[in-house]
Amino acid sequence: MTTQKLFVYGTLRKHESNHFVLKGSPCIAEQAWVYGELYDTGLGYPSMKASLDQKVYGELYEVHLDHFTELDELEDYIPGRKDNLYDRVEQTVHTDAGDVNALVYISNRNDILAEPILHGDWKLYRLMKDKPEKTYYFAYGSCMDDERFRLANVDQHFKTVVGGGVLKGYSMQYLFSRDDGGRADIVENGGITEGILYELPYKAVEYLFHREGFYGEWYRPAFVNVQVGEDVYTDVLTFHVYNKKGELPPPDHYALEILRGARGRVSEQYYKNLEKQLEKLGVKINLDA
Asked: Percent of the chain having pLDDT more than 90?
Protein backbone atom coordinates (compact mmCIF):
# COMPACT_ATOMS: atom_id res chain seq x y z
CA MET A 1 0.00 0.00 0.00
CA THR A 2 1.49 3.33 -1.08
CA THR A 3 -1.40 5.62 -0.09
CA GLN A 4 -3.62 6.16 2.92
CA LYS A 5 -6.93 7.96 3.25
CA LEU A 6 -6.87 11.10 5.44
CA PHE A 7 -9.78 13.14 6.81
CA VAL A 8 -9.04 16.86 7.31
CA TYR A 9 -11.21 19.45 9.05
CA GLY A 10 -9.19 22.65 9.52
CA THR A 11 -6.37 24.48 7.77
CA LEU A 12 -5.68 21.51 5.47
CA ARG A 13 -9.05 21.92 3.77
CA LYS A 14 -9.42 23.47 0.32
CA HIS A 15 -8.57 27.18 0.14
CA GLU A 16 -7.19 27.15 3.71
CA SER A 17 -3.69 28.19 4.77
CA ASN A 18 -2.08 24.73 4.90
CA HIS A 19 -3.89 23.06 2.02
CA PHE A 20 -0.68 23.26 -0.03
CA VAL A 21 0.67 20.37 2.05
CA LEU A 22 -1.89 18.12 0.32
CA LYS A 23 -0.81 19.19 -3.17
CA GLY A 24 -1.05 16.18 -5.47
CA SER A 25 -3.35 14.28 -3.11
CA PRO A 26 -6.72 13.55 -4.76
CA CYS A 27 -9.82 14.72 -2.90
CA ILE A 28 -12.15 11.75 -2.57
CA ALA A 29 -15.00 13.65 -0.90
CA GLU A 30 -15.59 17.33 -0.23
CA GLN A 31 -18.62 16.50 1.91
CA ALA A 32 -17.44 14.15 4.65
CA TRP A 33 -17.82 13.85 8.40
CA VAL A 34 -16.64 11.90 11.42
CA TYR A 35 -17.80 11.65 15.00
CA GLY A 36 -15.92 14.17 17.10
CA GLU A 37 -16.01 17.55 18.88
CA LEU A 38 -14.43 20.55 17.19
CA TYR A 39 -12.80 23.46 19.03
CA ASP A 40 -11.23 26.78 18.13
CA THR A 41 -7.75 26.86 19.67
CA GLY A 42 -7.50 30.64 19.35
CA LEU A 43 -4.24 30.06 17.47
CA GLY A 44 -5.65 30.29 13.95
CA TYR A 45 -6.63 26.65 13.60
CA PRO A 46 -9.17 24.22 15.08
CA SER A 47 -8.61 20.99 16.96
CA MET A 48 -10.79 17.95 17.42
CA LYS A 49 -11.32 15.42 20.17
CA ALA A 50 -13.21 12.14 20.13
CA SER A 51 -16.99 11.98 20.58
CA LEU A 52 -19.66 9.32 20.22
CA ASP A 53 -22.48 11.63 19.16
CA GLN A 54 -21.24 15.00 17.86
CA LYS A 55 -20.00 15.46 14.29
CA VAL A 56 -17.07 17.20 12.62
CA TYR A 57 -17.26 18.10 8.93
CA GLY A 58 -14.38 18.17 6.50
CA GLU A 59 -12.84 16.55 3.43
CA LEU A 60 -11.38 13.15 2.57
CA TYR A 61 -8.12 12.70 0.66
CA GLU A 62 -5.97 9.88 -0.72
CA VAL A 63 -2.46 10.73 0.49
CA HIS A 64 0.82 9.12 -0.52
CA LEU A 65 2.65 7.67 2.49
CA ASP A 66 5.69 9.84 1.77
CA HIS A 67 3.59 12.98 2.43
CA PHE A 68 2.88 11.98 6.01
CA THR A 69 6.34 13.14 7.06
CA GLU A 70 5.37 16.73 6.29
CA LEU A 71 1.87 16.25 7.70
CA ASP A 72 3.21 14.80 10.95
CA GLU A 73 5.58 17.75 11.28
CA LEU A 74 2.72 20.20 10.73
CA GLU A 75 0.61 18.47 13.38
CA ASP A 76 3.54 18.08 15.82
CA TYR A 77 3.11 14.31 15.83
CA ILE A 78 5.87 11.75 16.23
CA PRO A 79 4.80 8.09 16.38
CA GLY A 80 5.31 6.68 19.88
CA ARG A 81 5.97 10.03 21.58
CA LYS A 82 3.75 10.68 24.63
CA ASP A 83 3.63 14.49 24.54
CA ASN A 84 2.44 14.94 20.93
CA LEU A 85 0.23 17.91 20.20
CA TYR A 86 -1.95 15.61 18.08
CA ASP A 87 -2.52 11.89 17.86
CA ARG A 88 -3.04 10.21 14.51
CA VAL A 89 -5.86 7.71 14.73
CA GLU A 90 -8.12 5.74 12.40
CA GLN A 91 -11.83 6.56 12.28
CA THR A 92 -14.85 5.82 10.13
CA VAL A 93 -15.50 8.65 7.66
CA HIS A 94 -19.01 9.10 6.30
CA THR A 95 -19.49 10.38 2.73
CA ASP A 96 -22.28 10.48 0.14
CA ALA A 97 -20.67 7.43 -1.50
CA GLY A 98 -20.53 5.40 1.71
CA ASP A 99 -18.32 4.87 4.74
CA VAL A 100 -14.56 4.33 4.70
CA ASN A 101 -11.80 4.11 7.28
CA ALA A 102 -9.24 6.91 7.27
CA LEU A 103 -6.61 8.56 9.44
CA VAL A 104 -7.42 11.76 11.29
CA TYR A 105 -5.35 13.98 13.58
CA ILE A 106 -7.07 14.55 16.93
CA SER A 107 -5.99 16.64 19.89
CA ASN A 108 -3.71 15.12 22.51
CA ARG A 109 -3.96 18.20 24.76
CA ASN A 110 -7.13 19.59 26.31
CA ASP A 111 -5.45 22.89 27.18
CA ILE A 112 -5.59 24.05 23.54
CA LEU A 113 -9.34 23.41 23.22
CA ALA A 114 -10.43 27.00 23.85
CA GLU A 115 -13.92 27.47 22.34
CA PRO A 116 -16.38 24.79 21.18
CA ILE A 117 -17.38 25.00 17.51
CA LEU A 118 -20.98 24.01 17.96
CA HIS A 119 -21.83 23.07 14.38
CA GLY A 120 -18.62 21.13 13.77
CA ASP A 121 -17.45 23.01 10.67
CA TRP A 122 -14.41 25.32 10.69
CA LYS A 123 -15.45 27.20 7.53
CA LEU A 124 -19.02 27.70 8.75
CA TYR A 125 -17.81 28.77 12.19
CA ARG A 126 -15.73 31.58 10.68
CA LEU A 127 -18.53 32.66 8.36
CA MET A 128 -20.94 32.97 11.29
CA LYS A 129 -18.34 34.70 13.44
CA ASP A 130 -17.07 37.17 10.84
CA LYS A 131 -20.47 37.97 9.24
CA PRO A 132 -18.85 39.22 6.01
CA GLU A 133 -20.46 42.02 4.04
CA LYS A 134 -20.49 39.83 0.92
CA THR A 135 -21.09 36.08 0.58
CA TYR A 136 -21.49 34.06 -2.60
CA TYR A 137 -24.40 31.61 -2.51
CA PHE A 138 -25.29 28.85 -5.00
CA ALA A 139 -29.01 28.04 -5.34
CA TYR A 140 -29.93 24.81 -7.14
CA GLY A 141 -33.50 24.16 -5.93
CA SER A 142 -36.47 26.32 -5.01
CA CYS A 143 -34.20 29.29 -4.16
CA MET A 144 -33.65 29.79 -7.89
CA ASP A 145 -37.19 31.20 -7.81
CA ASP A 146 -37.79 34.56 -6.15
CA GLU A 147 -41.48 34.32 -5.18
CA ARG A 148 -40.81 33.22 -1.59
CA PHE A 149 -38.15 35.92 -1.26
CA ARG A 150 -40.83 38.50 -1.99
CA LEU A 151 -43.34 36.90 0.40
CA ALA A 152 -40.70 36.97 3.16
CA ASN A 153 -39.78 40.59 2.35
CA VAL A 154 -36.14 39.67 1.70
CA ASP A 155 -36.13 39.96 -2.11
CA GLN A 156 -34.02 43.14 -1.89
CA HIS A 157 -31.14 40.98 -0.63
CA PHE A 158 -31.23 38.69 -3.69
CA LYS A 159 -30.94 41.31 -6.43
CA THR A 160 -27.25 40.74 -7.22
CA VAL A 161 -27.14 37.71 -9.51
CA VAL A 162 -23.64 36.83 -10.69
CA GLY A 163 -25.04 34.42 -13.28
CA GLY A 164 -25.92 30.85 -14.03
CA GLY A 165 -23.46 28.62 -12.19
CA VAL A 166 -22.17 25.09 -12.66
CA LEU A 167 -21.32 22.86 -9.70
CA LYS A 168 -19.15 19.97 -10.88
CA GLY A 169 -19.04 16.65 -9.05
CA TYR A 170 -22.62 16.77 -7.73
CA SER A 171 -26.06 15.71 -8.93
CA MET A 172 -29.36 17.19 -7.82
CA GLN A 173 -31.89 14.71 -6.47
CA TYR A 174 -35.03 14.93 -4.31
CA LEU A 175 -33.66 13.30 -1.17
CA PHE A 176 -35.01 15.40 1.67
CA SER A 177 -38.27 13.86 2.84
CA ARG A 178 -41.26 15.98 3.86
CA ASP A 179 -44.85 14.88 4.49
CA ASP A 180 -45.89 15.92 0.98
CA GLY A 181 -42.85 14.57 -0.90
CA GLY A 182 -39.18 15.17 -1.63
CA ARG A 183 -37.10 18.33 -1.69
CA ALA A 184 -33.95 19.07 -3.69
CA ASP A 185 -30.52 18.05 -2.46
CA ILE A 186 -27.06 17.70 -3.98
CA VAL A 187 -25.23 14.38 -3.94
CA GLU A 188 -21.47 14.17 -4.42
CA ASN A 189 -21.44 11.48 -7.09
CA GLY A 190 -19.49 12.95 -10.00
CA GLY A 191 -22.44 14.59 -11.74
CA ILE A 192 -23.16 18.21 -12.64
CA THR A 193 -25.66 20.57 -11.06
CA GLU A 194 -26.60 23.92 -12.52
CA GLY A 195 -28.12 26.79 -10.60
CA ILE A 196 -27.89 30.47 -9.77
CA LEU A 197 -24.93 32.21 -8.15
CA TYR A 198 -25.94 35.14 -5.94
CA GLU A 199 -23.88 37.74 -4.12
CA LEU A 200 -25.56 38.28 -0.74
CA PRO A 201 -25.30 40.45 2.36
CA TYR A 202 -25.07 38.55 5.63
CA LYS A 203 -28.73 39.28 6.44
CA ALA A 204 -29.66 37.07 3.50
CA VAL A 205 -27.38 34.31 4.80
CA GLU A 206 -29.24 34.37 8.12
CA TYR A 207 -32.55 34.16 6.24
CA LEU A 208 -31.27 31.09 4.35
CA PHE A 209 -30.17 29.42 7.58
CA HIS A 210 -33.76 29.59 8.80
CA ARG A 211 -35.41 28.78 5.47
CA GLU A 212 -33.23 25.72 4.92
CA GLY A 213 -33.83 24.41 8.45
CA PHE A 214 -30.17 24.60 9.40
CA TYR A 215 -30.89 24.93 13.12
CA GLY A 216 -33.30 21.99 12.93
CA GLU A 217 -30.70 19.88 11.08
CA TRP A 218 -32.60 19.70 7.80
CA TYR A 219 -29.97 21.19 5.50
CA ARG A 220 -26.33 21.78 6.38
CA PRO A 221 -24.37 24.77 5.04
CA ALA A 222 -21.62 23.50 2.73
CA PHE A 223 -18.84 25.20 0.77
CA VAL A 224 -18.17 24.40 -2.89
CA ASN A 225 -16.51 25.73 -6.04
CA VAL A 226 -18.91 27.11 -8.65
CA GLN A 227 -18.07 28.05 -12.23
CA VAL A 228 -19.75 30.98 -14.00
CA GLY A 229 -18.48 31.29 -17.54
CA GLU A 230 -14.68 31.16 -17.33
CA ASP A 231 -14.58 32.26 -13.68
CA VAL A 232 -14.46 29.90 -10.70
CA TYR A 233 -15.80 31.11 -7.34
CA THR A 234 -14.40 29.30 -4.33
CA ASP A 235 -15.91 28.51 -0.93
CA VAL A 236 -19.39 29.33 -2.20
CA LEU A 237 -22.15 28.72 0.31
CA THR A 238 -24.78 26.14 -0.57
CA PHE A 239 -26.87 23.59 1.35
CA HIS A 240 -26.57 19.81 1.67
CA VAL A 241 -29.10 17.53 3.38
CA TYR A 242 -27.98 16.11 6.74
CA ASN A 243 -29.87 12.81 6.57
CA LYS A 244 -30.52 11.68 3.04
CA LYS A 245 -33.40 9.33 2.24
CA GLY A 246 -34.48 7.58 -0.94
CA GLU A 247 -35.58 9.89 -3.74
CA LEU A 248 -39.22 10.98 -3.54
CA PRO A 249 -41.33 12.93 -6.06
CA PRO A 250 -41.65 16.57 -4.99
CA PRO A 251 -45.09 18.20 -4.67
CA ASP A 252 -46.30 20.15 -7.67
CA HIS A 253 -45.88 23.56 -5.99
CA TYR A 254 -42.22 22.83 -5.24
CA ALA A 255 -41.49 21.46 -8.71
CA LEU A 256 -43.11 24.61 -10.13
CA GLU A 257 -40.72 26.81 -8.14
CA ILE A 258 -37.70 24.91 -9.44
CA LEU A 259 -38.73 25.03 -13.09
CA ARG A 260 -39.87 28.65 -12.89
CA GLY A 261 -36.61 29.70 -11.27
CA ALA A 262 -34.45 27.66 -13.65
CA ARG A 263 -36.04 28.62 -16.98
CA GLY A 264 -33.85 30.99 -18.91
CA ARG A 265 -31.16 30.94 -16.22
CA VAL A 266 -29.65 27.47 -16.63
CA SER A 267 -28.63 25.84 -19.89
CA GLU A 268 -31.40 24.59 -22.16
CA GLN A 269 -30.14 21.00 -21.87
CA TYR A 270 -30.04 21.12 -18.08
CA TYR A 271 -33.57 22.54 -18.00
CA LYS A 272 -34.77 19.63 -20.17
CA ASN A 273 -33.03 17.24 -17.79
CA LEU A 274 -34.90 18.80 -14.85
CA GLU A 275 -38.19 18.21 -16.66
CA LYS A 276 -37.26 14.61 -17.51
CA GLN A 277 -36.17 13.95 -13.92
CA LEU A 278 -39.53 15.17 -12.64
CA GLU A 279 -41.45 13.14 -15.23
CA LYS A 280 -39.61 9.98 -14.17
CA LEU A 281 -40.81 10.69 -10.64
CA GLY A 282 -44.36 11.10 -11.91
CA VAL A 283 -44.45 14.90 -11.75
CA LYS A 284 -45.37 16.87 -14.87
CA ILE A 285 -45.42 20.66 -14.75
CA ASN A 286 -46.42 22.93 -17.63
CA LEU A 287 -45.29 26.48 -16.94
CA ASP A 288 -47.16 27.78 -19.97
CA ALA A 289 -50.53 26.31 -19.03
From this structure: 92
